[in-house]
Design brief:
Split_barrel_FMN-bd; Pnp Oxidase, Chain A; 8 strands; Pyridox_Oxase-rel; Flavin mononucleotide-binding protein; eight-stranded antiparallel beta sheet; alpha+beta
Length: 154
């Protein structure tokens, strides 16, 4: 039985990214690393990750230091898992571009959920955090600079 941890090739990294919609975003704030869960959509055509948030520490931090990471895992057991790590650059989207990508994000996550768990959410609030009051969300993308993955299967 071979229990070694091995590299995941790029095709399998991209497959894992596309089959999931929850990841852990890593960013730097006040000289400290933070890692938080986010809902995301992998935009294959533009080689980027789409998401949104309300104003706050995460957005402020990424505006100041736009180098970020995103990790996605599928863990079945301690002996059977896959993990992908992305390094990229935060980019805030504005105006009609933000609206276009928020729609793309919403539709993409809905399709991903539908394929993964055979459920069709109707509203963005069904699969992503609610936004505060009437403020517009901050729509952003992470331009992927590097992607790598590991897996273990016994």
């Amino acid at each position: 039985m071979n229990e070694a941890i091995k590299d995941l090739d790029i095709d399998n990294c991209l497959r894992l990214l596309g089959e999931n919609y929850i990841g852990r975003l890593g960013f730097i704030s006040y000289s400290c690393p933070y890692i938080i869960p986010i809902t995301y959509f992998h935009d294959v055509e533009e080689k980027s990750i789409l998401s949104y948030s309300s104003e706050g520490n995460k957005i402020d931090a990424m505006r100041k230091f736009p180098s970020v990471s995103l990790q996605i895992d599928e863990i079945n057991t301690i002996q059977h898992w896959k993990s992908v790590l992305i390094h990229g650059k935060f980019e805030e989207l504005k105006g009609s571009t933000a609206k276009k990508y928020l729609k793309k994000f919403s539709q993409g996550v809905q399709e991903t959920i539908s394929k993964k768990i055979d459920e069709k959410p109707k509203f963005i609030s069904d699969f992503s955090s609610r936004l505060s009051e009437r403020k517009l969300p901050i729509v952003f993308r992470i331009r992927i600079k590097d992607i790598s993955g590991k897996y273990r299967a016994s």
